[in-house]
Amino acid sequence: MDIYDNRSKPFLFLSDNNKRKINIEKLKVIKMIKWQESFNVNIKSIDEQHKKLVDILNKMDKSKNEEKKIILETFDELFEYVKYHFSFEEKLMRDKNYSGYAKHKIMHEKIISTLQEYYENFQNKNTENTIDAHTIISFLMDWLLTHIMQKDKLYAKEILTISTT
Asked: Which one, out of 66, 69, 117, 124, has a CA that is 20 to 30 A from the CA of 18?
């Protein structure tokens, strides 16, 4: 299943059994993520939030060659929405007594920390050890799809099972 919109040829795929196949060297050629129904975790509010995250990432990808100020504004939007989304997910997990809540929360904390580090690094781009917008966007696209397809689907399955019993 081709999940990336790359005008020349696809480089990254998710197989039908949701296992990642990624060629890291070609991450920088990713253009946009096309939302697939297979990304749905079947919790409407979460699916809508995931779609919004994909939209913001695609917006960030479109702005990656713009002035630094424009990229940082889009990064701010993404960062704020990620924090909102994680807070929402964590409340849902607590409310439904999800067994993997503590581990999932730690994953969220790690991504927030990484985003903060990337943001600060990009903001100070004129210094050594800087990171470019392409690298940040590639990391985020890979992380988001991996997180949705593996971790979020896992908690959603348990929550949906709990809700129907």
From this structure: 117
As a whole number, mean pLDDT of residues 142-164 equals 87
Give the burial class of 164: count Cβ atoms within 10 A of its Cβ; 0-12 exposed, 13-18 middle, 19 or more buried. exposed
pLDDT tens by residue, 56-75: 988 888 887 777 788 888 88
The CA radius of gyration of the chain, in Å to the nearest whole number, is 16
Q: How far apart, in whole angstroms, are the C-alpha atoms of residue 157 and residue 67?
A: 42
Share of the chain above pLDDT 90, in %: 39
